Prior knowledge:
Strand content: 15-25%
Number of strands: 16
Number of domains: 2
Amino acid sequence: xxxxxxxxxxxxxxxxxxxxxxxxxxxxxxxxxxxxxxxxxxxxxxxxxxxxxxxxxxxxxxxxxxxxxxxxxxxxxxxxxxxxxxxxxxxxxxxxxxxxxxxxxxxxxxxxxxxxxxxxxxxxxxxxxxxxxxxxxxxxxxxxxxxxxxxxxxxxxxxxxxxxxxxxxxxxxxxxxxxxxxxxxxxxxxxxxxxxxxxxxxxxxxxxxxxxxxxxxxxxxxxxxxxxxxxxxxxxxxxxxxxxxxxxxxxxxxxxxxxxxxxxxxxxxxxxxxxxxxxxxxxxxxxxxxxxxxxxxxxxxxxxxxxxxxxxxxxxxxxxxxxxxxxxxxxxxxxxxxxxxxxxxxxxxxxxxxxxxxxxxxxxxxxxxxxx
Length: 372
């Protein structure tokens, strides 16, 4: 009986508390609604006063900011005034670091360095992203999208994290004209610098390496792979396969593969015959894919900047380009070659990627010169 009495007493007390505070809760909610309605009315009046604003182009960023699409302006509702889009950035230094990183996903380093400190052509703010673009004096446009999860601590408005993935990520585009860069005779003291340049340009390559030099530079072999590039065999010490004949060639390829497997835990699938020397007997007897080339830069012969023109004067979609990373002169002019390939809209990939782009399966006991 006492327990039941106590229960009812607690229930009555709870009802009393709720009934006592309800008017206050209701009044607070009413105030919030009233304040919101007041802000909306003030915003409507502000838009009407500034007739150049298209009412239908105004979208909400958060309770404090609205964005006007037709003139890329932002309205600060608390002050009922315009602010520049960049004025909502609270830490511009950190913002520029983020911007640089995202631009580098899409564009080569030399492009990003040219544009990063210029004024924005457009700076479009929404609740979940900021779209930024640059326009160069040559008329080239470069754009990037920053998503909420990356910049939310750097801006003065509340953003909504609705975008998944990275909108700036660029994969292989089968519709673009593509070439495969290949480097023979390494690895060597110049290979890491070649890798650095390729990474600066977001480009790929296949390195056909000698087994004897893999033994000397195992860390360089690992870095080629860690950088997302491809390694192929160039034999153990650059002896012509046709002189080694079938048995000698098989031993040479196996020896090189054993060294590579010890370094990487993988097997070599692609083989470039030294000097391009191969015959039908070798091709038909060894279970690997042979890769030659369709564009010879002659960098090994001219040893100067002329090799760049040797490539660019004939390069076309589907070509395999021959270079050598053992020559300092090749490294010295490689940046010029990569800039020209980029400016002429070539997608630069590995041999296997180029074959995949063209829908050509790489088969054993075949020799490939290009992919068309």
